[in-house]
């Protein structure tokens, strides 16, 4: 466990996520999700966690493991075609993780998701949080559109509103 990581998480905490992802930014991200989901039959969720606290922090939980917890907690795996995708940002670490259900993950693969994550992280490092988030949503949606194109009306199985934890 790194003392630097603990310090970042304790001092950055949740206020930073709300400072960067204001209600207006969250509204625009939600609209991007709605717009993009019209191009495919998949489901996209965007979650920002300002920092880890409590047991997760002191267990030194990696962002990927935390993203898997969030994926499960939000029931993103519970879609009809197993095509839910979580874009998770752990702001204190500036780490983006994409967790995709088995219906889409096998088609895109770890390398494809990793490329999207790195592009988002580059935007975040330059302070372009909204642009990075929306760009990531659009990139994930392009992958979903390739493998799950819309076929008639499809229900919106998961909320489009971003989650700030």
Automatic annotation (TrEMBL):
Lineage: superkingdom: Bacteria
InterPro entries: TPM_dom
A Pfam match: TPM_phosphatase
Listed transmembrane segments: none
Domain TPM as annotated: residue spans: 18-141
Cited Gene3D superfamilies: 3.10.310.50
Disordered as annotated region, ranges: 146-165
Protein name: TPM domain-containing protein
Classification of source organism: Bacteria, Pseudomonadati, Pseudomonadota, Alphaproteobacteria, Hyphomicrobiales
């Amino acid at each position: 466990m790194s003392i630097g990581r603990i310090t970042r998480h304790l001092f950055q905490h949740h206020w930073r996520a709300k400072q960067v992802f204001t209600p207006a930014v969250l509204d625009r991200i939600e609209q991007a999700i709605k717009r993009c989901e019209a191009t495919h039959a998949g489901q996209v969720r965007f979650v920002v966690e300002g920092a880890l606290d409590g047991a997760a922090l002191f267990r030194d939980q990696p962002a990927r493991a935390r993203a898997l917890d969030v994926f499960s907690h939000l029931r993103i795996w519970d879609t009809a075609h197993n095509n839910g995708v979580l874009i998770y940002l752990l702001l204190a670490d500036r780490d983006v993780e994409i967790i995709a259900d088995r219906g889409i993950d096998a088609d895109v693969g770890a390398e494809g998701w990793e490329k999207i994550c790195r592009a988002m992280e580059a935007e975040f490092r330059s302070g372009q949080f909204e642009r990075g988030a929306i760009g990531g949503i659009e990139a994930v949606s392009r992958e979903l559109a390739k493998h799950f194109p819309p076929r008639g009306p499809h229900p919106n199985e998961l909320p489009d509103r971003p989650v700030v934890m």
